[in-house]
Design goal:
This protein has eight helices and three strands, in the order αααααααββαβ. It is mostly helical and about 290 residues long. Helix 4 runs antiparallel to helix 5.
Length: about 290
């Protein structure tokens, strides 16, 4: 990861931590005043955003470390691990919300919403959406999966606050509204957790290379060389922002080692320049 990209992650992480701590205090206080389990649960959701932002900072620092003897391909997968931790945190919070919602529903306890709850919820919606937009902007700049995961964490908090705000206005008519809101928030967070975990786990396990990328590489190499090399057997290994590609080519069995090496080097340089992939090529004898 470049130093420029690392700076985006560090800046987003610190802004998120400070903002979320302030919002947590406001929402928790408003939840206590109103007696709303949905607001208190939403406050704890906001606090987990601060925890996830700490993970973003640590993951960004680790993934930015250069390759070493024990990690010859760098530390880029720390980004994926950090995103998985964020997804697990979301799942835990969602499960806790479900338990709290069911418990309050069984006790037939409602919330006493007032002006304080409305004002604090509106502040939370605006603040969290601003954080989400900033994190998404950073993701578009850096392509960091950590920033994308953190952005969705902010977005789910903003959406849950919108649902709570709607519920505040109708909650006075239905005692069970607070329990229902907490359950809806839990389901939204659970879905965000699923989206993050499914993507990151697929990346860690290894995914099939995009057929369009293979096609683009073949077309580009065909136009680069004077001879057909039958490039095939592609494998892509992803390490965060660092990606390693391996493939095979076919060359005449009588070709000298120097000439075969020159062709392989030329292809490797081209793929690095055009597709930003570090490539290792295995030449095979071409059957005449």
């Amino acid at each position: 990861m470049s130093n420029h990209n690392h700076q985006y992650i560090v800046r987003e992480g610190w802004i998120s931590i400070v903002t979320n701590l302030l919002l947590f205090g406001l929402k928790y206080w408003a939840g206590l005043v109103s007696g709303s389990i949905a607001l208190i649960a939403d406050a704890w959701h906001t606090l987990t955003d601060s925890v996830s932002s700490v993970i973003v900072l640590v993951g960004g620092k680790v993934s930015n470390k250069p390759a070493d003897e024990e990690h010859p391909f760098g530390h880029g997968r720390a980004e994926h691990i950090a995103a998985v931790i964020i997804g697990v945190l979301l799942a835990i919070v969602a499960f806790d919300f479900v338990l709290s919602s069911v418990e309050k529903f069984n006790s037939r306890e409602g919330g006493n919403f007032g002006t304080i709850a409305i004002v604090v919820t509106i502040i939370s919606i605006v603040g969290k959406e601003v954080l989400a937009q900033y994190a998404f902007w950073g993701y578009r700049k850096t392509k960091s999966s950590m920033l994308k995961a953190d952005a969705w964490h902010h977005r789910t908090d903003s959406l849950s606050s919108i649902i709570i705000l709607i519920g505040i206005f109708v909650g006075k008519f239905y005692w069970w509204m607070d329990s229902l809101l907490a359950l809806i928030v839990a389901l939204m967070i659970a879905y965000a957790s699923y989206e993050i975990l499914s993507k990151e786990i697929r990346g860690l396990l290894g995914e099939r290379i995009d057929p369009e990328l293979i096609r683009a590489i073949k077309v580009d190499i065909d136009g680069l060389l004077e001879r057909e090399v039958y490039i095939h057997h592609f494998h892509l290994h992803q390490y965060g922002q660092h990606n390693e590609l391996s493939c095979h080519i076919k060359l005449p069995a009588t070709m000298s080692l120097n000439e075969a090496h020159a062709i392989c080097t030329r292809i490797e340089n081209r793929i690095k320049e055009k597709f930003d992939l570090v490539t290792t090529i295995h030449p095979e004898p071409l059957e005449e």
